[in-house]
Amino acid sequence: MGNHRVVSAAPRAGNANQYAAEPATSRFTRPRALALRNWPVSTRLIAVIVLALLMGLVFGGLRVASAAQSASEFGGVSQLADLGQQVTGLVQALEDERDKTTGLLPITSAADLNGVYAATNAAAARVQSLAARIGGSFPANIQSRVATVLTDIRHLHELRISAQASESALAVIVDYRTPITDMIALNDQIAQGTSDATLVNDVQTLDSLSLAKDQAAQQRAILYNAFNQQLFADGELQALLTAQSEELTDLTAFATTATPAEQSTYNNFVNNVYGTAVNQAQNIELYVVGTGVPDIGAGALNISAAKAPGAWYSAQSAKVDAMQETELDVARNIVARAKSLQGSAEGSALVTAIVTAIILLLVLLATVAVARSLVGPLRRLREGALNVATVELPERVRLLGEAQDAPISLTVAPIDVLSTDEIGQVARAFDQVHSEAVRLASDEASLRNSLNAMFVNLSRRSQTLIERLVRMIDSLEQNEGDPERLSNLFAMDHLVTRMRRNSENLLLLAGHDSARKWSGPVSLADVARAAASEIEHYSRVTLKVQPGIAITGSAVSDVVHLLAEVIENATIFSPKDTPVHVAAEEPTSGGVLIEVSDSGVGIPEARLAEINWRLDNPPVIDVSVSRHMGLFAVARLAERHGIRVRLRPRSPQGLTALVWLPDSVIEREASLFGTRPWTLAAQSGFPGRGNTDGHGIPARPVMEIQPASRRRDVVVPEPAGIGSRESGPATAATAGWFRSHTSSAADNGGGSAGWSAASPAQPALRDGRAGSGTDGWAIGKHAAQIIAQPVHGDFTTAGLPTRVPRANLIPGSAAGGGTSRPGSGPETQTPTTPRSPRSPDVARSRLSGFQRGARRAKEGLTPDSGEGADR
Q: How high does pLDDT run on average in the chain?
């Protein structure tokens, strides 16, 4: 607007809100989203906590798993110990069955062995029940041993048949050796996989004692058969000697591994409980081995041959029973130790799990507490910083900007982070930044106030000089009769008017209102003509304004200023031989829509969107404002009264500026020519009352951003000209635009009728009022005739006419009334009265009439054939 068309420093309108809301970091190259440095602090702390918990769970789980595995292993040992205890009883039953069988050879009746068979079967059933629990969780070799024992149990019947058919004690001993050896070997695997020394030692003790007992039982079987046969069969004596030797070896191994308690138990059973029988068995065996024959009837023993088998079997069975009691005691110790170890392992696993859970819980609580001590202050710091950046600092800057003389406190409230760690130090640093920003805002506000004061001072001084220049031009015009010079003076008057508008722009920069105010409403047509009269190429402007509309007095000066900037922009950036159309209409949506259209080259779409954004968001004072004063003035004036200004491309070329005046700045006047239908709202993109916003709600007139093609600056749409010959009913209203505001006597001090002449682009505004005289047109015609046929006096020696004082004055233009033309009667003059200083608007109105008459005189037109003729 004015001489300025674009704002290069402004962000593009289409992306303005996005640009404002976009974080500063996003304007740089965006780092990878998954990079660790881009994680929120809370996420990083959670990650550390999770890692610590996972590590604790892993190590604690491993410890618990180890304890649980140990408990499981000891549970298996406990099961094997229970099984071994029952296997020990089964071995004893098989030994008894074997020895009884050898004593009855050759077997004549199997019924004699039913008792020992029943005892063996009962022990075998208990072993089978416990062996069934040994599953896949046990080592393969133990499973194999258990399977072998179960197989031996299932083949007991075949074993017994084979034994009954044997005729040799050694053959029977060999038949029973396999299952007995398999069962003893199973007991030897009880402590497999354990590291408990006591349990391993007890298992070894049990194995040694079981083997020694089996050798003692074999001795019982051999001698039992020999006493019954009263002779040693082949190899029996040697087998007896071998069994004795192996028994001593096994007992030695037992004594090596047995605990004192176990040795004491063995000695107690052998020496005390069964001591007499054991001694007798030892004596019998020593005597037989010494003589080499199974005869104990002679000597100290004195046992007959018939009683010898029973005596030997009874005495040797006492020794076997003593060893059996010790063996069962060791087996019970193994079971107790295994169960103890299992309980300890289970308790250790439980304690480990509980301790691990407690430690993890404590770690979790500690890390959460530490995380909260970090995240909490960080969040408060972030919220405080955002509050300072978005609320406190802008509000403080606003207060500082609005404050004139009253001092504003520069103290700032610290952010609610009072710790002394790095976060607290950052908070204090930000407080210092906040304080510095407030100080700089205060300095900037002071500087802005100083600049505003300078602008106001310059504007006031300029306006004073402009007023003096207006009075000087007015004085020259009063005494000038040359049309050329009068036309130049009129052009100077326009330049002065533009200078005054630029001076008022300085007031806008300073945030001050214009000094020109109107007490009452002014017709929109007069406002439009006043705006057109303030530009240089006013003659190119055509007006088409709907009658019956007025602008409220408080907004008249600003609307004139705004329209002048828009219209001047259209004339500057369009060909000089093309008109600029100004149309005003009332859309059905409310308010008044003014369109200013030119035929220029337009502006690019992106720049158009940028300018429209600037029109809705007035810029702050910066270097760009100085380069685009007109845009700043239009935006500020529109913001002051709620006016909307929007640019859009015009078809086929050019630009259209839409100026929507809200109901708050307009008043309705009684129309002299009725109403006519207007369709401009639908054409301009402003919604009418029948339109909706997409939700069924009637839409208010909102200036939407129209797509743009090309342009240089702000301008507006295209209706037909106002005041032109084709304006139709609008032309009929022109008579009212050239009427005096007061009666004839009021403006001329009595005498002549008052008048006000104006071109279609010139408002008849006088002394802050709209002119509406009664016979102004007749006076205008008279003025045109005077200019076309001026009164001349005598000629000079050079052939130039001399002026006749006051002969060519237009009635009412000078104090004292009118004059009569020479040749029409004697010249009469009314006495002159002191003339009061005229306002710039009066001078502009009067000079408009002068210029119009001069133009008509040059073109050879009469008042009835030219523009604006009363039709």
A: 75
